[in-house]
């Protein structure tokens, strides 16, 4: 019997690539119906590129600084994505703002993960800003990418309670563990054909989502064993 079809995805990274690893593991373990067709990184020195290669993934660097401008960089990126045959693009710690003309052809097929409960705290340094504002709740969001930075329709959020003793470091770790749960989950739904973008509405099984899907930190089955997220 032939294997069920898996959706080819491209993962774009700039850093350590822990979300990329979580997604790749979910694919390799058959937990989601996707396969990593390509990992693309915009920084030669990013740790994630070695991690991807160690896993035997097709990984390449398209170093932004080697291109004269954003148009040229995005053209190279677009060509690499086309060559990979990816049907879904997952930005996972990709620290570059993509232009409207780049994003548009991928509408409904490009996702991002952001370390806050969007629409709160778009942009950088979310953990520090959350602590400064004495927020009681924090988390991460997976959303469809639109030309508005961190502004596309949110699909799923992981939530946690901010503790008095939390620091930027502790929140980074806790949010990462949530991210490693919600990103594979969303990609699994997309791969199963259950998720779509229509206008600014997220559709799940053909029905508009009234609120993002949710996961809470305390529901994490991983909390009862040693941290297995890396
Ligand atoms: C994550 O916190 C993600 O939300 C943000 O960048 C970080 C990337 O971490 N966009 P990693 O490279 O996946 O470990």
Describe the protein in words:
- The chain has 230 residues and is α/β, with parallel strands linked by helices.
- The protein folds into two domains: 1-106, Rossmann fold (3-Layer(aba) Sandwich); 114-230, 3-Layer(aba) Sandwich (Rossmann fold).
- Helix content is 30%, strand content 25%.
- It is built from six helices and eleven strands.
- The protein has helices at 18-28, 47-54, 70-84, 100-103, 126-132, 168-191, and strands at 7-13, 34-41, 59-61, 88-91, 110-114, 137-144, 154-161, 195-198, 201-204, 207-208, 213-216.
- It has an eight-stranded mixed sheet with strand order 3-2-1-4-5-6-7-11, with helices on both faces.
- Strand 4 (88-91), helix 4 (100-103) and strand 5 form a beta-alpha-beta unit.
- Helix 1 (18-28) packs parallel to helix 6 (168-191).
- The radius of gyration is 17 Å and the shape is globular.
- The two termini are 34 Å apart.
- The relative contact order is 0.15.
- Residues 224-230 have low confidence and may be disordered.
- The site of 5-O-phosphono-beta-D-ribofuranosylamine has 15 residues, from helix 1, strand 5 and helix 6.
